[in-house]
From TrEMBL:
Organism: Heracleum sosnowskyi
Alphabetized InterPro entries for the sequence: Cyt_P450 (IPR001128), Cyt_P450_CS (IPR017972), Cyt_P450_E_grp-I (IPR002401), Cyt_P450_sf (IPR036396)
Keyword field: Heme, Iron, Membrane, Metal-binding, Monooxygenase, Oxidoreductase, Transmembrane, Transmembrane helix
Amino-acid biosynthesis among keywords: no
Native organism taxonomy: Eukaryota, Viridiplantae, Streptophyta, Embryophyta, Tracheophyta
Gene Ontology biological process: brassinosteroid biosynthetic process; brassinosteroid homeostasis; coumarin biosynthetic process; response to light stimulus; sterol metabolic process
UniProt topology in membrane: Single-pass membrane protein
Highest taxon of the lineage: Eukaryota
Sample GO molecular function, one term: oxidoreductase activity, acting on paired donors, with incorporation or reduction of molecular oxygen
Localization annotation: Membrane
Protein name as catalogued: C6-oxidase
Reaction(s) catalysed (UniProt annotation): 6-deoxocastasterone + reduced [NADPH--hemoprotein reductase] + O2 = 6alpha-hydroxycastasterone + oxidized [NADPH--hemoprotein reductase] + H2O + H(+); 6alpha-hydroxycastasterone + reduced [NADPH--hemoprotein reductase] + O2 = castasterone + oxidized [NADPH--hemoprotein reductase] + 2 H2O + H(+)
Needed co-factor(s): heme
SUPFAM superfamilies, per the entry: Cytochrome P450
Family membership: Belongs to the cytochrome P450 family.
């Protein structure tokens, strides 16, 4: 009985203490000028609700507090902005008291020197280096031939097989990027790299709690393994004195690399480029396959475009730059897939000083989550927004409208946008001209915090 009473008192005390701390946490942020909203529990804030319920949590908060409100997610006090005009202002005015504000877990795992984390002159120099690697001329002459060669091989033996298209597009995005970035095509390093990289990706969106069996610790350990592999690759290249025509070769060349980055900076850039390309390319490719399966008329139009390209060349002739630039409907399919699936929900910024924004005072060090997801479903911008309609993008004004945030905005618009387009387009070219497919199982696709099919997306493949 005494033990029972002791346990009861302890539980009651914990509950009372939690209640007091919760109220104290709310009072701490009831400062004049702050936007409305709730902050949740001490330390953890509303992270659990945010990660578990995602868009529904944010929509509920918007119904209560409007399109500009405060919260506490991923370990940080955060303003969530869903206003298209305010979001455009934030993305276009980074230097005015705002810098990248990615969560600590992402910084720890991608590295503090990565292009997404730095700002000012460091970001300008790094972005310039990346853009020179991803210019139209470089894509035409260097990247597209490698992409075409890889896609032919990757899709060569899928006939009459049951495959998980989610897993296949993940492998495709990573292995193709490894080939372009570091000249890694196959062998033991690929086998070691792939599982570590997948763990690294999972760790980037997690609470930075370094405990056993957490995604964060697994991601940090995966980063250590990947850094070791890349450092060994750099040392081997330096010892051989061979300069290769890939991104790593460019970064290591003192003649071409005007930034003259250290090995640590080079490694962080390689990891970040791999991460950025992998996440968007693999998911967009998977969802394009999903949407094409569900919309036969779109598939018919897409296949027609690619069969015309294929008919103008021999069976073994690769697609070239002119072929890629002629894929107008393919580009529309990719844009519509990115919009409807919402591959990227938004971006984070951090205040470097107390500032006024949208009529409110935002304290120094707070994050601002530029939440662009709802803009993708704005019926004023996209009539019948929940329908998959690539034809909407064939209007020239659509691709240039000022609230298009699919690829970010301002000085941080995705520098790899065109390369990603080329990669997905090449994948779709060989996929739709070689195969038909049918979904098996009807697995669920979730869209938050990242778009994925938790049990895979299995399809039965047959020759076209």
């Amino acid at each position: 009985m005494a033990i029972f009473m002791f346990v009861f008192v302890v539980i009651l005390g914990v509950c009372l203490l939690s209640s007091v701390l919760l109220r104290w946490n709310e009072m701490r942020y009831m400062r004049k000028g702050l936007p409305p909203g709730t902050m949740g529990w001490p330390v953890f804030g509303e992270t659990t609700e945010f990660l578990k319920h995602g868009p529904n949590f944010i929509r509920n908060q918007r119904a209560r507090f409007g399109s500009f409100f405060k919260s506490h997610i991923l370990g940080c006090p955060t303003i969530i902005s869903m206003d298209p005009e305010v979001n455009r202002y934030i993305l276009m005015n980074e230097a005015k008291g705002l810098v990248p504000g990615y969560p600590q877990s992402m910084l720890d795992i991608l590295g503090t020197h990565n292009i997404a984390a730095v700002h000012g002159s460091a970001h300008k120099n790094m972005r310039g280096a990346v853009l020179s690697l991803l210019s139209p001329a470089m894509i035409r002459d260097q990247h597209l031939p490698k992409i075409d060669d890889f896609m032919r091989s990757h899709l060569s033996n899928w006939d009459n097989k049951l495959i998980d298209i989610q897993q296949k597009t993940k492998e495709m995005a990573l292995l193709s990027s490894l080939k372009q970035i570091a000249g890694i095509e196959s062998g033991s390093m690929c086998k070691e790299f792939m599982p570590e990289f997948f763990k690294l990706v999972l760790g980037t969106i997690s609470l930075p709690v370094n405990l056993p069996n957490t995604n964060y610790r697994s991601g940090v350990q995966a980063r250590q393994s990947i850094v070791s592999m890349l450092r060994q690759l750099i040392e081997e290249r330096r010892a051989s004195q061979e300069i290769k025509s890939d991104m790593l070769g460019y970064y290591m060349s003192s003649e071409e690399n005007r930034c003259k980055m250290s090995d640590e900076e080079i490694i962080d850039q390689i990891i970040t480029i791999l991460y950025s390309g992998y996440e968007t390319i693999s998911t967009t490719s998977m969802m394009a396959v999903k949407y094409l399966h569900d919309h036969p008329r779109v598939l018919e139009e897409l296949r027609k475009e690619h069969l015309e390209i294929r008919g103008s060349k021999g069976p073994e002739n690769p697609i070239n730059w002119n072929d890629y630039k002629s894929m107008s409907f393919t580009r529309a399919v990719i844009l519509e897939t990115s919009r409807l699936a919402t591959i990227v929900n938004g971006v984070l910024r951090k205040t470097t000083q107390e500032m006024e924004l949208n009529g409110y005072i935002i304290p120094e060090g707070w994050r601002i989550y530029v939440y662009t997801r709802e803009t993708n479903y704005d019926s004023h911008l996209y009539p019948d927004p929940y329908s998959f309609n690539p034809w909407r993008w064939l209007k020239k004004s659509m691709d240039a409208q000022k609230y298009l945030f699919i690829f970010g905005g301002g000085s941080r618009q995705c520098p790899g946008k065109e390369l990603g387009m080329a990669e997905i387009s090449t994948f779709l070219h060989y996929f739709v001209t070689r195969y038909r497919w049918k979904e098996i199982g009807g697995e669920e696709v979730v869209k938050f915090p990242r778009v994925e099919a938790p049990k895979g997306l299995h399809v039965k493949i047959s020759a076209y």
